[in-house]
């Protein structure tokens, strides 16, 4: 049993490292963006908070939890809820740009990497 778990870990190691690298990169970039934003004199004119529903492809509870936590740990975003059928993840963003770009960025970034780790 232990050997099987080790084999699975070794096989998934590249996916785990890719996810970790993406998270660290997004953490640094987002922290810099939020720090710059809050230091602006016209902060109230610059923030555009919004709730966004992010479509999820079928995933396990563990992978949805991992995705939600990664989003919450990234400055400027917060995971709020998951729909009962687990098809949508509701997030709050500090500054809303283009909704389609945000959805595509999460799908091709965190969600794709989390799927690779949990497949």
From TrEMBL:
GO CC aspect terms: plasma membrane
| Location of this chain's protein in the cell | Cell membrane
The superkingdom listed in its UniProt entry is Bacteria
Which GO-annotated molecular functions does the record name?
A: monoatomic cation transmembrane transporter activity
Cite the entry's keywords alphabetically. Answer: Cell membrane, Membrane, Transmembrane, Transmembrane helix
Q: How does it sit in the membrane?
A: Multi-pass membrane protein
Question: Could you tell me which PANTHER family the record lists for this protein?
Answer: NA(+)/H(+) ANTIPORTER SUBUNIT E1, NA(+)_H(+) ANTIPORTER SUBUNIT E1
Q: Which family does it belong to?
A: Belongs to the CPA3 antiporters (TC 2.A.63) subunit E family.
The molecule here is called: Multicomponent Na+:H+ antiporter subunit E
Origin species = Devosia enhydra
């Amino acid at each position: 049993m232990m050997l099987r778990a080790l084999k699975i870990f070794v096989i998934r190691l590249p996916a785990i490292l890719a996810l970790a690298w993406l998270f660290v990169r997004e953490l640094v970039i987002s922290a810099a963006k939020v720090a710059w934003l809050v230091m602006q004199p016209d902060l109230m004119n610059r923030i555009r908070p919004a709730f966004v529903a992010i479509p999820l492809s079928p995933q396990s509870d563990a992978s949805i939890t991992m995705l939600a936590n990664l989003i919450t740990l990234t400055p400027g975003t917060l995971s709020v809820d998951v729909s009962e059928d687990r098809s949508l993840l509701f997030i709050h963003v500090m500054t809303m740009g283009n909704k389609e770009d945000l959805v595509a960025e999460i799908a091709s970034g965190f969600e794709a990497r989390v799927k690779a780790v949990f497949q």
